[in-house]
Amino acid sequence: MTIKEVPTPAYVVDEGALEKNLQILKDVKEQAGCKILLAQKCFSMFAEYPLIGRYLDGATASGLYEARLGHEEMAGENHVFSPAYRPEEIEKIAAICDHVIFNSFNQLRRFGPLVKRIQEMRGVKHGIGLRINPECSTQDHAIYDPCAPGSRLGVTAEAFAKAVEETPELFDLLSGLHFHTLCEQDSQALAVTLDAVREKFGSWLVRDNICWLNMGGGHHITRDDYDRGLLIDLVKKARQEYAVEVYLEPGEAVALNAGYLVTEVLDIVENHGTHILLLDASAACHMPDVLEMPYRPPLKDAGEAGEKAYTYRLSSCTCLAGDIIGDYSFDRSIVSGDRLYFEDMAIYSMVKNNTFNGMALPAIWRMDKDGACTLVKKFGYEDFKGRLS
Ligand SMILES: *Cc1c(COP(=O)(O)O)cnc(C)c1O
Q1: Is the CB of 183 within 6 Å of ligand 1?
Q2: Per-residue pLDDT, 229
Q3: What pTM was estimated for this model as a whole?
């Protein structure tokens, strides 16, 4: 089957594009001498983990469930960072994670010694880290800025110094520091951030017990105009300056532009001169970042409103008035039954979707390098009912 024939709605992941990204990431890690992990919160299509595991060093998780998924499905290292762990899950996490990264000295004090004991029994060394907050905002999407005043994410330099002064033995538990401050950014933003990290945390990073530095995600490494040479230089410099192993954990960069959401036009209505397409895909259900981020997803063979001859508002068959994807134009008029292809739909899509309005979840397909599509999983009424009671 080709992408033109798959039943809609469907996510179709383009394995050729995915592998192209993975090759770029592999080249970067080899040249920079660092390790790169998949951030599963962005892309958890585990059918592709065997492929991803051939290029990257493992996976990172936001909590127990993702950590389990990484442990079960991905070869290589398994890392986790959560803003707060629950007491009933920390032992399970320690049993399957090579790096457990805490968000506060409170959590480190509460769980650090137990995690260390469990990891040591498994022969895992240097497995405990702490997230720092360099308080260096390099972009202006407030919802994606962990460095904003009042942020809960990461320990500030001031809090760090105070905690180490009061309880120096807690610092000794640490083998690494972690920061994650970027979102869809270039390596220039990393350069600025690393200057802030040096200024605020450099004296801790050179300590003997600190042997790794995790620079988080948000590095848009596989985007065409990303400055990979600068990234490689920055990583090399940090490795040398602090005598640490460096980790990067991109999500988006792994599966950037590597998937489609295929949808069909169910109806067309008109209101005050606006022609509105009702699709069997929904922004609210199937691409929530369109409303949350917000952004306008690229659409194959379409232009900005008014750019081509026929302009339509793309909307969905939910009852939410604001479930609007955007205004797009086409070279020809659109009729019911036409299929549209949203691009860049592998990332932050299937991991975030929902069945609001009882909407069907799109099936998940893989497309090989020759364009042949194979069904990976489809969903039905039971998936909707199964998470209700
Ligand atoms: C979201 C996140 C990532 C991945 O971010 P991308 O923007 O998808 O690259 C990595 N690490 C942490 C801690 C995150 O919260």
Answers
A1: yes
A2: 98
A3: 0.97
